[in-house]
Amino acid sequence: MSYSLCKKKQNGKYYLVLAISKGFKKGYGNQIGLGYWEDIKEKYGLSSIEDMKEIAKKVDTSLDKAVAKEEFFKLLKPTSVKTSIQNIGVDLIYKVIKELNLFSALPKSKHKSLEEVLEFFIATRIILPRSYMSQYKNKSDFINDINVKKSSIYNYLDVIFENKNSVLVNLFQKINEFTNRNNKVFHFDNTTVYFESFTREGIRKNGFSKDGKHNEDQVVIAMAVDENGIPIHYKVFPGNTADGKTMLSFVLELQSIYKIKDITIVADRGINNNTNLRFLEQKGIKYIFQKRLDTLSIGMKKFILEDKHYVFRDEMFWKEQIVESIWNKNRFNGKYRKWCVFFSPGKRL
Question: Which GO terms describe its biological process (predicted)?
Fold first, then answer.
């Protein structure tokens, strides 16, 4: 038996409590109030309630409530164990950032410490992902300390946001300079990022969550990566945007910013719809999309199930078929599509 961390709505905010489960669907008992999430998050530099759930389990359930609450916050406090160790590995990441000349595209700014602060947050988040405020409070953990007021951090983030495309283009060109990256194949996908907040503002909206957080507001992030999984470009959409509706504006922005034309888009079945296919064909953009079997025509299903014309190569059976690209009322648009069917005997259940 152990404590669970629970949250409940109180005065329009999340109130956190330690509680012991009474059993499946029987609720919780022996509750210990901890305080409002926003206050705890700010005080201890946290980014998510998930950060505290494992700590809750460590609190001894036999303790008096007041003592148990004190023990919880003692475990939560980052300075509960003092150390003089500093992370020197961050210096290697600094060298990579310098080599990429990451912020050369930024305009001359009145913020004297702009690049220093941005480099610090990028490097330290790679080593230990935490909120910006938590990184700032624990900056002495790293050899590359920064001397800046906490209130200035968000101003610096505004600068990087306003010049996002310039930074991305500069990074794109630098990686091309240092590697033999294939800039003709882009792997496209969407993900979601949720927010623990009662305030619904801007593009933060309720939608289908890929994190399983269906009660939280979120944003949708579309991203293209190269064949090594290195990001090339991203675009943020309102949280209620469906997967199939992110690609058109994303591809137009991609071509406009990076001045590239001859590309192939690789994506999963969530992006495969007639609107997207029609758009890509009109723009002369090649694509490789997965297709859901339950959406196929009777003729295509028959083609897949027939044993004829399969070829075995690289431990896979495969065959292909050229079909006309059609739109409403079976109108042929002058383009052709290639259906490729793959089957791996080794992956059968």
Answer: DNA transposition
